[in-house]
Amino acid sequence: MDRIVVTGGNRLEGRVAVAGAKNSVLPMIAAALLTDDQVNLFDIPPLDDVFTIGEVLQRLGADVRLHQPGTVTIRAGDLESCEAPYDLVRKMRASALVMGPLLARLGRAKLPLPGGCAIGSRPIDLHIKGLRALGAIIEAGHGFFEARAGRLRGNRLYLDYPSVGATENLLMAATLAEGVTVIENAAEEPEVADLAALLRKMGARILGAGTKVIRVEGVERLGGASHRAIPDRIEAGTYMVAAAITGGDVYVANAMAEHLDPVIAKLTECGALVIEDAGGVRVVGPDRPRATNVKTLPYPGFPTDMQPQFMALLTLADGSSVITETVFENRFMHVPEFERMGAEIIADGRTAIVKGVPRLSGAPVRATDLRAGAALVLAGLAAEGETDVWGVHHLDRGYVNIEGKLRSLGAKVARVEDRLLARRSS
Ligand code: EPZ
């Protein structure tokens, strides 16, 4: 298993640029199933999750090509299958996003029941409930959802929870449904609005994406389009915390400050200086962060995907902080890893009390999921000595060349390939 080796103590300085948003790109690739014309997507980060959903579409019969640099073209002409393969869905829950488009385009879809994952059970009951309300007949059996429908019919849908994935799946399904669909208590994440921007270019009629109420007027068919994804606000936030935790001075190019209000507010409370301009965000870190409290909420609240990274910063704060994780029921897997580095944290259910310590010590630690892995690298940047972060494959799902980008800012970071594994696989 590869690992990232971080030697702490360097202040990060310089400029780093963030790529297109992973959580925009994944639903956009699924949206290409809604038409038999070509869809061109630009600024696509070469991430494992992007390759996975691209492979799902290829297995369905779509022609998916990754061009350099960062352009993906998709033509879902003659789809040969309606089944999202188990081995790929198991790897990435976001594969469920093909269900709405397949039902709208083909009238049938077969999807493995979602397994759990490191951060919680993560069911898709809200997706299923909404698709049934649009007229789909969906049965579960033998580890799969089998769905079929004639032409979907618009309806008024209320989401019990503003689920990002459910909003995106239902939004895509509704674009080809007969009549009007209204999604209430919809997710307001910027990635939902970005997906809607692509769908509108394809001919969909959508109002209110990015707000709590989305109105869709179904059309007969959608056409091809070209679109550039918005910048990745979580990748941007991760590098902003890297500046803060090392007392550095970093300009994060392409970061859209308006998507980062809660992160900027909390960094400022911790004593960082955050300067926004049209091209990005500059963060000057404090000598020692002040303690603050963080509660994760659906957008526009503090993003759960920034919770582990912010906890890393708060482990070194001058005081105690309370972190409340309201989105996922098990997103404190990074706590014991931080404790191995000398952090003092009491986690109980969805609340963690972080008692700031003056220093962390480098240690071998294990990434349990994508954002926990990034958080451990951030802690390693500030720790004394060397931190080996195992489980780099988690990081590769959401960060392009994190070690190279951090090195360009002056960090001592290297990726060490597992020679034994490499020998075996050669
Ligand atoms: C998206 O996941 C993101 N992934 C996640 O980012 C992010 O953490 C999450 O939204 C919340 O912001 C992508 O966009 C690909 P949800 P998603 O449906 O859609 C429960 C990352 O690191 N729920 O909003 O799966 C669910 O269990 C990833 O990039 C149901 O109960 O998130 C969870 O507790 C991690 N039933 C909560 O809602 C459902 O049908 C939020 O889930 C759907 C969700």
How would you summarize what this structure contains?
The protein is of the alpha+beta class. 31% of the residues lie in helices and 25% in strands. Strand 17 (294-296), helix 10 (307-314) and strand 18 form a beta-alpha-beta unit.
Salient structural properties:
426 residues, 15 helices, elongated, binds ligand EPZ
Question: How would you describe this structure to a colleague?
Answer:
The structure is a single chain. The mean pLDDT is 95. The protein is elongated. The chain folds into two domains: 213 residues, Enolpyruvate transferase domain (UDP-n-acetylglucosamine1-carboxyvinyl-transferase, Chain); 207 residues, Alpha-beta prism (UDP-n-acetylglucosamine1-carboxyvinyl-transferase, Chain). The longest helix has 13 residues. The protein is α+β, with helices and mostly antiparallel strands and 426 residues long. It has a four-stranded mixed sheet. Strands 2-14-16-15 form a four-stranded mixed sheet, with helices on one face. Helices cover 31% and strands 25% of the residues. It is built from 15 helices and 23 strands. The protein binds ligand EPZ.
Write the layout of secondary structure elements.
Layout: E1 3-7, E2 13-17, H1 22-31, E3 38-42, H2 48-60, E4 63-67, E5 71-75, H3 86-89, H4 99-106, E6 108-112, H5 125-133, E7 137-141, E8 144-148, E9 156-158, H6 164-174, E10 180-184, H7 190-201, E11 205-207, E12 213-217, E13 225-228, H8 233-245, E14 249-253, H9 261-269, E15 273-277, E16 280-284, E17 294-296, H10 307-314, E18 320-325, H11 335-340, E19 344-348, E20 351-355, E21 364-366, H12 370-382, E22 386-390, H13 392-396, H14 402-407, E23 412-416, H15 419-425
Helix pairs in contact: 1-2, 1-7, 4-6, 5-6, 6-7, 8-10, 8-12, 10-12
Ligand EPZ is lined by residues 22-23, 26, 93-94, 120, 122-127, 161, 163-166, 304-305, 327-328, 370-371, 398.
